[in-house]
User: What shape does this take?
Amino acid sequence: MSMDNKDSSDFIKDREIEEILSANRRAEPERVREILAKALELKGIAMDEAAALMMVSDPDLLKEMFEAASKVKDAIYGRRMVIFAPLYISNLCGNECLYCAFRARNKEVKRRALTQEEIARETEILINRGHKRILLVAGEAYPSQEGFQYVLDSVKTIYSVKSGPGEIRRVNANVAPLTEYEFKRLKETGIGTYQLFQETYHRDTYHKVHVAGKKIDYGWRVTAFDRAMRSGIDDCGIGVLFGLFNWNYELLAMLQHIRHLEEVFGVGPHTISVPRIEPAVGSNLAEHPPAAVSDIDFRKIVAILRLTVPYTGIIMSTRETANLRRELFALGVSQISGGSRTNPGGYSEAGLQEDTEAQFSLGDQRSLDEVIRDVARLGYVPSFCTGCYRLGRTGKDFMDLAKPGEIRHHCDPNAFSTFQEYLSDYASPETKTLGEELINSVMPRLEPEIRDMTKRMVDEVRAGKRDVYC
Ligand code: SAM
Ligand code: SF4
Assistant: This one.
């Protein structure tokens, strides 16, 4: 008998959120500065302190808050920026999420589930561009013959493809909530992070925007990570779809979710995603989000998360425009997607069917090479690292290394070696020159012990060795 019924969504406490918001309505400069000083100790801040930061609007104080977030980002992540690509395997869906183009009743989208051969072709293209990390994405309906096995087979297919000197070394998955049994099977495929966004933690809003299909069950979704953790998937990625409900509420509810996972499993999420609603074919709601988040508030969200949960990766998709991405890197974003398509088959058939099969419009249409060049020009080292997951440093083991800052001994060398691998095997001449200059200028500034290791690994890659990690 499954234990799946024992979960309840009680850990999202509306009353507590209301009380915190009303007790922290004013952002006194003195208190804000105290909170920022505390955050600079890299141990995070409490929920009521995060709430006080949400209220900051004075430009000078806001500037101080952004500077503090940048310092925390820099202290923990240095100049690294992890790069991944989403791979949409299917847009079949039985749910009616009013903001999404894949919703079941949307007749404007042509339905398609890629075959395993098509998935292999998409994977090959991503490998040949230089990707090492894929996020598999699917709607919540699988081809009838295969059922959930379709997802498992797809992960295996992606891992099986080899092309030239490359392969995909880590597959993360963003698929609908599973039972414990299904999570166990997903884990067996060698999945990295299991990612799932609650969309909105606000129950009434949740029910207004999810009107049919399995996804109407708020509790089943919000307890998905409990089942994942019990099934051995300790690397989880949470998120909110910003624009559905007041972002202050959403941030505090997400912090309650994190607190719950830490209390019950001893480890919080590995990553937080911060998507904002983008226009989607056949969705009025996506055209006019009920609680649209402005660019300035979006910067605040990223900065507050960075100050509150300093060791949790923040993921931004390609959905944000190139200009805003630049600023958000400095404030706290640590992972981005590059050269993405959101329609199944979108890499093999670039330019075709994007209007009729894609999930949402992209704010950033650049190729991976352009994204990498841009990231490098801004002084960040693009990282294709998959070391932790392959060496079993996940969940609590990862956090035990991350919190005292020791993870840098792995992350920095791995970022440089995988970036060098990209430059040697895939970059355009312009990107290669720029990237190698960056490596040569940033490497000497690393702490001596880390620098020596990094140099050794980069030299090995330059001499022809591949997949060098520690
Ligand atoms: N079907 C699964 C689910 O809903 O959890 C997983 C895949 S779904 C395509 C992945 C995410 O896309 C959703 O969780 C939602 O946050 C996001 N999404 C849907 N419509 C969007 C839109 N118009 N703009 C931005 N993100 C959107
Ligand atoms: Fe389906 Fe996910 Fe889109 Fe909802 S968000 S319609 S579940 S693909």
Remarks:
- The radius of gyration is 21 Å.
- The chain has 21 helices and eleven strands.
- Residues 57 and 296 are 10 Å apart (CA to CA).
